[in-house]
Design goal:
By secondary structure, the chain is α/β, with parallel strands linked by helices. 50% of the residues lie in helices and 12% in strands. Helix 3 links the parallel strand 3 and strand 4.
Length: 302
């Protein structure tokens, strides 16, 4: 499997009681399919997997496969502290016919690179599915480094990495030393730089509610190789990127989704909803971004 294009880490809508709203989740998936994103990721950070019970994760993955069918690739997250739990999620992903799995470092445990590699390869052996690695040291406590990549890159199933460290040196190292692992942007501020260094996919939470705009940047940089146009689109996106970087990331992604008519619901505890002022700030930022990118794309088409 080759990761190409925009992969959306889908939100998980909740009802007023904090329970997963399956019909609203189906609407989210259908909206992404209609928007022509290139793949869907569930049980990622944006989907609030850390706040779900194991049973909820198993059932949500199966339901996502049922709704999506074969219309788009489905990637299922396997994040957990215990290797045994990640293996269980990976096996369940295989059983429902997932196209790939997302494998992160186990949070809180702070494994060495060798231990982290053993964790990944154990999951790989159990699932036998294409793997997108997920390097997010700010959440996991450790960063995947050269020793780690040297140990796991021999597996044919390790096909890509969502690189979310925000460290340009890490991006350069991966592009130069491990070209067999496809780069996928996981740090939104650096999408332009990722594409310049050969990334061909972007796992971007904002595409839950701005799919066309994210696809426009991918199209400009990867398909058209028009980085002048890409810079203009990225510049228009930066106010949103900066707003997301300020905190309350999941809440802002969910509110952005509400703005386009999706029933997102609140975040799950311990997170709390945005204030009215914060909601207004998201709405203003999104409206300005959409207007500016529409103008850029329209000019390019004339």
């Amino acid at each position: 499997m080759q990761f190409e294009g925009i992969y959306t880490p889908a939100i998980t809508p909740l009802d007023a009681d904090g329970q997963i709203n399956r019909s609203a989740f189906a609407e989210v998936l259908e909206s992404l399919i209609a928007a022509k994103v290139h793949g869907i990721v569930i049980a990622g950070s944006t989907g609030e997997y850390y706040a779900h019970t194991p049973q909820e994760r198993f059932e949500l993955a199966a339901y996502a496969r049922q709704v999506i069918g074969t219309r788009l690739p489905l990637v299922v997250g396997t994040g957990a502290i215990r290797t045994e739990d990640s293996v269980a999620y990976a096996k369940a992903a295989r059983e429902i016919g997932a196209d790939a799995i997302l494998v992160a470092s186990p949070p809180y445990a702070i494994p060495t690179e060798e231990e982290n590699a053993a964790h990944t390869l154990t999951i790989d052996q159990a699932a036998g599915l294409p793997i997108m690695l997920y390097n997010y040291p700010a959440r996991m406590g450790v960063s995947m480094g050269e020793t780690y990549f040297g140990l796991v890159s021999a597996s044919r199933n390790i096909v890509a990495i969502k690189e979310s460290s925000g460290d340009m040196n890490q991006l350069h190292m991966l592009a130069r030393r491990f070209p067999n692992i496809g780069l996928s942007c996981g740090w939104d501020d650096l999408a332009l730089e990722f594409f310049a260094w050969g990334a061909r996919s972007w796992v971007c939470a904002g595409s839950n509610f701005l799919p066309a705009e994210h696809i426009a940047l991918y199209q400009a940089c990867v398909v058209e190789k028009n980085f002048e146009k890409g810079r203009r689109i990225m510049a228009a996106m930066m106010p949103l990127m900066n707003l997301l970087d300020e905190g309350k990331f999941v809440q802002k992604i969910k509110h952005g989704s509400t703005l386009v008519g999706l029933k997102s619901g609140p975040p799950r505890r311990p997170l709390l909803p945005l204030t009215v002022d914060e909601e207004d700030q998201v709405a203003r930022t999104v409206a300005a971004l959409k207007q500016e990118i529409a103008q850029i794309v329209g000019e390019a088409q004339r």
